[in-house]
Amino acid sequence: MKMIDLFWLVGLCLARACQRFPNEVNVALQGTADQSSLGHDVGLASHAIDGNHDSIYSKESCTHTNTDSPSWWRVDLKDTYEISTVIITNRKDCCHERLQGAEIHIGDSPDASKNARCGTITSTSPGSVHTICCSGLKGRYVNVVLRGKSQYLTLCEVEVFGVPNQDPAPECKRKPNEVNVALQGTADQSSLGHDVGLASHAIDGNHDSIYSKESCTHTNTDSPSWWRVDLKDTYEISTVIITNRKDCCHERLQGAEIHIGDSPDVSKNARCGVVTDTAPGSVHTFCCDELVGRYVTIMIPGRKDYLTLYERLSRNAVTWDITHGIHSLFALQKETGYFQ
């Protein structure tokens, strides 16, 4: 996404210039905050994203941990964003030096050590405002960490400016006249978790993604949980697009595998792809390079978890969505026609 230059005035000083996105907003305001501990009753983690920039601790507008090792604070943005800038307001009434050496990390893991480091606070003063340029780093979590020492961490405001992640979907090799043959198939799943979570709901033409509308599938916490469509013939499959559930539980799709082949036993079929990260409503495109098969299976290996699928209409094609689920399948019928 194109970024623009913008200078920020902080007090009477010209803050660091970061490349900014047009139409970006402070996405931290819609997130939820957590921290390593609660050092004082009024030092809640949420105070750093409440929009109140007052840097006097007694005004109940700042966070406060214990002397943890390390001390940390984190905001969950609830979705993956491209982040241009993080702005941190330090405490003014005392103890500004505690923020010295704090690291800012951004990524899709709640564990800061697994995320990229955007910057480090190298000097502080009472009420200092620190502008960290993150150059479009992508992530759902922004972590502030004090490493290598036992120290209190206090933040009076953390602003995170960015835009939703808009990576283009990969362009899969497609053939003309592909159609959605899932509509003519039959569906099955590892179990029925709820009375209205029938396997057939993923291919019934109802595109509502809210489970309570009785348009989704649902398994129990099987080991493994799986859903499968029998296409009634063998197809060359070009693309699988998976759209995740929005209303809750998106993390259940993490690690789901898509398999294609001529056996109803998923272990005997080739794997097209794996869902490696999730967010509410995230869309995942897998290029299957014309894998051949009669069965398309979604499986969550290695753990017990629910699997839920729903169906929706997509541009140029009727598609499936796994609320943990399949969004689209595009394919060519083996030798005779097309599959989607």
TrEMBL record:
InterPro entries: BG_Antigen-Binding_Lectin, FTP1, Galactose-bd-like_sf. Residues 1-20 form the signal peptide. Transmembrane segments: none annotated. Keywords: Calcium, Disulfide bond, Lectin, Metal-binding, Signal. One of its GO terms (molecular function) is metal ion binding. It holds the Pfam family F5_F8_type_C_2. SUPFAM superfamilies: Galactose-binding domain-like. SMART domains: FTP (SM00607). GO terms for biological process: regulation of cellular defense response; regulation of complement activation, lectin pathway. It comes from the Eukaryota. Residues 24-170, 178-321 form the Fucolectin tachylectin-4 pentraxin-1 domain. Belongs to the fucolectin family. Acts as a defensive agent. Recognizes blood group fucosylated oligosaccharides including A, B, H and Lewis B-type antigens. Does not recognize Lewis A antigen and has low affinity for monovalent haptens. PANTHER family: F5_8 TYPE C DOMAIN-CONTAINING PROTEIN, FTP DOMAIN-CONTAINING PROTEIN. Homotrimer. This is Fucolectin-5-like. It comes from Acipenser oxyrinchus oxyrinchus.
